[in-house]
Amino acid sequence: MLRNLLRLHSRVGHALSPPIVCPRSQALKLPLPLLSVNSKYYSIITERKKFYDDVSISHGEAGGMFEINLDQRKLKTPGGKLFTAPNEALAIAVANEWDTQKDTVKFYSMHMTTLCNTALDNPTFRSKDQIITAALKYLETDTICYRVEEPPSLVELQNNEWDPVLNWIEDRYNVVIGSSTNILGPEIPQATMDTFRQHLGSYNFWSLTGLEYVITQLKSVVLAFALIDKHVTVEQAVLLSRLEEEFQIGHWGNVEWAHDVDLYELRARTAAGALFVHFSSESSTVKRKLMQD
């Protein structure tokens, strides 16, 4: 069933469109209202009439950092900090989000921008260790690990579609995870938790911010790791995370437009999170160039 779904949705892309960055202008340090990535930090105002014409990127005063300019104003975070990206690839992705806004700036759709805001402001004042601990909590009730006992057709579907991913991560990291029909999920060995904690510790703070975001979208550490390691695509990861829901829809039907909107939004958030991890892990800068329509 899932393979049929993947073929059905195969035409939907999950990469960012080519960035469009407008000509540079002299920058002035004026604060701009933005939103944070976590919904509980969002401002009441999630849309605003577009208040700028040109978008550009420039080298910041701090070496190696890049800034975003909206007309003659420097972009700032919700916390009032100067918005800076650690490399040009990430800066271009953020600039693209601002440049593709039409008459209304839809802050809630700007996932790369809000992920950067979260990394810069760190509104919950968490350390790397705290982020890792929060991310690993999802392993205890991982979507891939929790299985149903009936109906038999759904049991078979879960085994056929989830077991290969579970087997892959156990082989890839030399760990034991397993699955369970218990509502609490399988009991994860401490050695597995220690291995994943060490692996997550190899990411920088920015990358961890993005990876935790992907995990929360998919409700799965297993699927998040498979996606970041490019073992599955964004489309596959999202459908695997929604396997039971898609099964029920196949049997009982759905409100088509609502299902499609939810699916596409989850794809967009997951894709943005995965790109953010890769971009923020990038140690080298790309060749600077202006990209125009």
Automatic annotation (TrEMBL):
Membrane topology: Peripheral membrane protein
GO BP annotations listed: mitochondrial proton-transporting ATP synthase complex assembly
Highest taxon in the source lineage: Eukaryota
Subcellular location field: Mitochondrion inner membrane
Family annotation (InterPro entries): ATP12_ATP_synth-F1-assembly, ATP12_ATP_synth-F1-assembly_N, ATP12_ortho_dom_sf
Pfam families associated with the record: ATP12
Cited SUPFAM superfamilies: ATP12-like (SSF160909)
One cellular component (GO) term of this entry: mitochondrial inner membrane
Keyword tags: Chaperone, Membrane, Mitochondrion, Mitochondrion inner membrane, Transit peptide
Role: Plays a role in the assembly of the F1 component of the mitochondrial ATP synthase (ATPase).
Family from the record: Belongs to the ATP12 family.
Subunit structure: Interacts with ATP5F1B; involved in the assembly of the F1 component of the mitochondrial ATP synthase (ATPase). Interacts with FMC1.
Name this polypeptide is given: ATP synthase mitochondrial F1 complex assembly factor 2
Gene source species: Salmo salar (Atlantic salmon)
Taxon lineage: Eukaryota, Metazoa, Chordata, Craniata, Vertebrata
